[in-house]
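Dock magnesium ion; give full complex structure.
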Amino acid sequence: MQFASAEAEQKYATLAAQLAEAVIAFDFDGTVSPIVEDPTQAHIHPDAADVLIELAPKVKALAVVTGRPARQVLALGGLEEVADRLAASGTELLVHGQYGNEHWTSSHRAIIGPRPPVGLATFLRELPKLLRDHGASEAYVEEKGLAVAVHTRRVSDPQATFERLLEPMRAAAEAHDLTVEPGKQVIEVRAPGMDKGLVIDRLVDTLGAKAILFAGDDLGDIEAFEALDAWAAEGLVTLKVCSLSPSDAGESALQSLADVVVDGPEGVIALFRSLAHASS
Ligand SMILES: [Mg+2]
């Protein structure tokens, strides 16, 4: 792991010393699971379960904060099984799916979420024409229930297609009171009013955390980083972790904002492991 500064390294040490008061929150794709061609195959890092079980009794809570539907990360993360193994530790694993619109806890095991936003059905009906008009008919449309994601990763010219689509999709989304969330070769359209930063605020408030770590890899994680900055100003111990994957080609939107940059999911797992060991 690479610390941004001596101060950042000190933040890590302080967090390790106050781990019992800390929430360990993390994104899923690109952070604990690799970015792969087929998003349905983005299984969690094979060591993640063991490391989370090891870390759990030493922290206040573990929380997945993701744009994916909670149901998908429960499956791809094997998180029901992690929850079974966690039960004895007394620590909860929380899943905040669809940018916090859905939540699940290891003690209740039910996904709680709102109804889809009103404009989404109309947006979806208009989407095929929008894609055709911008030469993006082959883009993969993923209906997520509360949102829709247009993936350009598998089209012949992923980045150019992404750039062609972003503004027209933003305009169409706004016309239906929806918002866009751009990511790595994916543009998601969803209800406004929720983001990962608000999830962080909710976690800190409801759990009474005195320290919080957040690990992420993409644009949608910036609000979470900003929330950590705001909590740091309030005196909380915070640590912003950027997961940099080989597919990022050495660049991530989060890199310059992070306290520590690690080597993809492998590096995130290693950091969690080192925290678990630092406190024992
Ligand atoms: Mg991600």
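Observed: The longest helix spans residues 158-175.
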